[in-house]
Every structure is written in C-alpha cells, then in structure tokens.
Amino acid sequence: MVLFNVEPRKAWRLLQPRAGVVNQDYQAPKAHLAKADQGEISIEDLTAKGRALLQAETT
C-alpha cells in the first residue's frame, strides 16, 4: 500500500518545477544540507537545532 502512495508524490514533485510551482518545504532542507556541506552550519547545530532552523527558513 505504501508503494502506491509514494509514486504519485514523486511524480508530483517532478512536475512541480515544470509547472512553475515552488515548494518551500522541499527547498529548505536542500538549502540547509548545502550550507552544511559548505561549512556554514556545523553538523552538530544541524542535528540539534535542525527543526528550528527549518521553521525559521520557511516562515
């Protein structure tokens, strides 16, 4: 049952950029991981305060 629910969401995420829809909830985690890779955010801060950082980014 889970398999059938995952595929439509994946297809929708692939179609969103083509339709011009920007999903902030999907872009914010990718941006934080990129900052962690560049060293702007430490891994410890990301694991300890990750949810708070994401909420601050999306609101």
Offer a few descriptive terms.
59 residues; 83% helix; mainly alpha; 3 helices; elongated
Major β-sheet annotation: none
Average residue-wise pLDDT: 80
Shape: elongated
The quaternary structure here is: single chain
Query: What structural class do the secondary elements suggest?
Result: mainly alpha
**What is the radius of gyration computed over CA atoms, rounded to a whole number of angstroms?**
14 Å
Q: What low-confidence regions span 5 or more consecutive residues with pLDDT below 50?
A: none
Approximate helicity band: over 70%
In DSSP terms (H or I, runs of 4 or more residues), the helix count works out at 3
The total strand number stands at 0
- Strand and helix order: HHH
How would you describe this protein?
This protein has 59 residues and is mainly α. The chain has a domain at 23-59. It is built from 3 helices and no strands. The radius of gyration is 14 Å and the shape is elongated. The N and C termini lie far apart (33 Å). The model has no long low-confidence stretch (mean pLDDT 80).
